[in-house]
């Protein structure tokens, strides 16, 4: 999980630099990376008692967060494709 924390931290820093340089990055995309950083940090620090299994709360919470982000991305892409089709 440490690599996930590093990955999302580097994504968030990179996108903040891009915004300062004038890129048009949607705020929800940056918030997604901050949320993923928090979830990775919680996953790193959450104490697991006993033998860890594949269906732990830790894995489910991280999975739900990732899936909710994918749903938001899908909604955004559908919305933009509808707008692009309407402009043609």
TrEMBL record:
Compartments where located: Membrane
Annotated InterPro entries: TMEM120A/B
Protein known as: Uncharacterized protein
Family: Belongs to the TMEM120 family.
Pfam families: TMEM120A-B
Gene Ontology, cellular component aspect: membrane
PANTHER family: OS02G0106800 PROTEIN (PTHR21433:SF4), TRANSMEMBRANE PROTEIN INDUCED BY TUMOR NECROSIS FACTOR ALPHA (PTHR21433)
Primary location recorded for the protein, binned into one broad class: membrane
Membrane topology recorded in Swiss-Prot or TrEMBL: Multi-pass membrane protein
Coiled-coil region: none
UniProt keywords, alphabetically: Membrane, Transmembrane, Transmembrane helix
Superkingdom: Eukaryota
UniProt lineage: Eukaryota, Viridiplantae, Streptophyta, Embryophyta, Tracheophyta
């Amino acid at each position: 999980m440490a690599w996930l924390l590093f990955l999302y931290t580097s994504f968030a820093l990179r996108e903040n630099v891009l915004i300062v340089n004038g890129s048009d990055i949607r705020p929800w995309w940056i918030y997604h990376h901050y949320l993923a950083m928090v979830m990775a940090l919680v996953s790193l620090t959450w104490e697991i008692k006993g033998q860890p299994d594949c269906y732990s709360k830790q894995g489910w919470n991280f999975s739900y967060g990732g899936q909710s982000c994918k749903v938001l991305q899908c909604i955004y892409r559908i919305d933009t494709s509808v707008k692009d089709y309407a402009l043609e």
